[in-house]
From TrEMBL:
Keyword Isomerase: no
Protein's name in the database: Threonine synthase
Modified residues (N6-(pyridoxal phosphate)lysine): K113
Biological process, per Gene Ontology: threonine biosynthetic process
NCBIfam families per record: thrC (TIGR00260)
Keyword Lyase assigned: yes
Domain Tryptophan synthase beta chain-like PALP: 104-331
Protein's organism: Eikenella corrodens CC92I
Enzyme Commission designation: 4.2.3.1
Domain Threonine synthase N-terminal: start-end pairs: 2-79
Keyword vocabulary terms for this entry: Lyase, Pyridoxal phosphate
Obligatory cofactor(s): pyridoxal 5'-phosphate
Length: 470
């Protein structure tokens, strides 16, 4: 299986090459040259598999340069009850109104990014060892991505992680989660500035070709193909849990920001999984909802991105969206390149002529949710089911309730646990609430923290990295 770029100007690559890549050199995103097709007999056989066995079967269709026995061991070491809390890994439950919730949020950082990032940690270590290489990851985080990357890469041979976060801007829980890690290869750097400043420093270092080359600098952002392929697995797992037989169809509702999560759902559907509809749920940052309702894609600037109470969806340029548009346009890379030129110039584009195919062929629909909706949904689900939903998942449930048709089975993806967002839960409840936390995380805030505070300066970060790697 070879991988190609959505912009068509990159020579085909193997899985292991794509695994360590960010953007393709032509500015596009990498995708398999075709989607493996899953027939009825295979689907029937897969229904009985454990999560790790299923993950092996699915990923093995996309990966031909890691021997099957090694891949089986990598996924076996990734998807364990010890790491994900349950034997099912992504258990599915049903709310009293019939909406199903698939928990992707039981990993070490209590957010769905662990599902893919944990695999990436094992896969990176394996490929780097095989090729005698090392990798130094630099990233910027305002919360979820950075902690998921650190928990996935902690203690991994051949890898250092330098994670920049805005000094004093994260919640006490998020700080404790990242800064309490004591592994020698994890380096937390708090920048005296905002999240955007952290991101600018990462970009500046990425653009420093000599530095990048000398220190093997890489990233683990949401466009990484290794993350997408690992996410395809839980759509199959969720489908099997939510149905009694493969003659049934299921719709998935996905709290979305960078379009990475639901992009994996799109791929699962293209492979032949009986998905009826893919429901995109956004918050107040509703560029994707606008596209799926009108066909117009109008990404917004950082200045026009709202800070909301579902912060991991505060995104106005969905970095994985190009993968879907490539498929929508029959994989016409010339047209994709020209559309993204329009995006770069600030114009955006209009694909309203494609709306019937977007809905009928690809199954996409959408909705959005605002602060008041989120709080009302959190309150209502607590009243009816006695559980606190995380704010992102609440956005999904709100949209699923609106879009669901009679007889339609809808699985909402639970992308985080309420425990991470006690303030918003308390606001919804109208009094202080401490949502339940996994036992392993009791007293997290009391652990010693490891972080270096630096001024808002790329040079300061660069010299710290040079010292560490000297
Ligand atoms: C990252 C994240 C999302 C958004 O996922 P995308 O892949 O960016 O669409 C939603 N909810 C939570 C809790 C997240 O961490």
């Amino acid at each position: 299986m070879k991988y190609i770029s959505t912009r068509g100007q990159t020579a085909p690559k193997s899985f292991s090459e794509v695994l360590l890549m960010g953007l393709a050199p032509d500015g596009g995103l990498m995708l398999p040259e075709r989607y493996p097709q899953v027939d009825a007999a295979t689907l029937q056989r897969w229904r009985g598999l454990s999560y790790a066995e299923l993950a092996f079967e699915i990923m093995n269709l996309f990966i031909d340069d890691i021997p099957a026995a090694d891949l089986r061991r990598l996924v076996g070491n990734t998807y364990t009850e010890a790491v994900f809390g349950t034997r099912e890994i992504t258990p599915v439950r049903t709310l009293s109104d019939g909406i199903k919730i698939q928990a992707l949020s039981n990993g070490p950082t209590l957010a769905f990014k662990d599902m893919a990032m944990q695999f990436l940690g094992h896969a990176f270590e394996y490929v780097l060892a095989r090729e005698g290489k090392c990798l130094n990851i630099i990233g910027a985080t305002s919360g979820d991505t950075g902690s998921a990357a650190e928990y996935a890469l902690r203690g991994k041979a051949g890898i250092h992680v330098f994670m920049l976060s805005p000094h004093g801007k994260m919640s006490a829980f998020q700080r404790a989660q990242m800064y309490s890690l004591a592994d020698a290869n994890i380096h937390n750097i708090a920048i005296e500035g905002m999240f955007d400043d952290c991101q600018d420093i990462v970009k500046a270092l990425q653009n420093d070709a000599a530095f990048k080359q000398q220190y093997s600098i890489g990233t683990v952002n949401s466009i990484n193909w290794g993350r997408i392929v690992a996410q395809v697995v839980y759509y199959f797992a969720g489908y099997f849990r939510a149905t009694a037989s493969n003659s049934e169809e299921v719709s998935f509702c996905v709290p979305s920001g960078n379009f990475g999560n639901i992009c994996a759902g799109h791929i699962a559907k293209q492979m032949g999984l009986p998905i009826r509809r893919l429901m995109v749920a956004t918050n107040e940052n509703d560029v994707l909802d606008e596209f799926f309702r009108t066909g117009r894609y109008r990404p917004r600037s950082a200045a026009k991105t709202y800070v909301t109470s579902s912060p991991s969806m505060d995104i106005s340029k969905a970095s994985n969206f190009e993968r879907f548009v490539f498929d929508l346009l029959g994989r016409d890379s010339v047209q994709v390149a020209s559309l993204w030129q329009q995006v770069a110039s600030g114009e955006g584009f209009d694909l309203s002529a494609e709306l019937p195919r977007i809905r009928d062929t690809f199954g996409f629909v959408s909705g959005s949710s605002r602060h008041a909706d989120r709080l009302a949904t959190i309150r209502a689900v607590h009243a009816s089911d006695g559980e606190w939903l995380d704010p992102h998942t609440a956005d999904g449930v709100k949209v699923a309730r609106e879009l669901r048709e009679a007889g339609e089975t809808v699985v909402c993806l639970e992308t985080a646990l309420a425990a991470k967002f006690a303030e918003t839960i308390s606001e919804a409840a109208g009094h202080e609430v401490h949502p339940p936390r996994p036992v392993a995380l009791a007293g997290l805030e009391n652990l010693p923290q490891h972080v270096t505070v630096l001024p808002n300066s790329a040079a300061a970060v660069k010299s710290l990295i040079e010292q560490v790697l000297a």
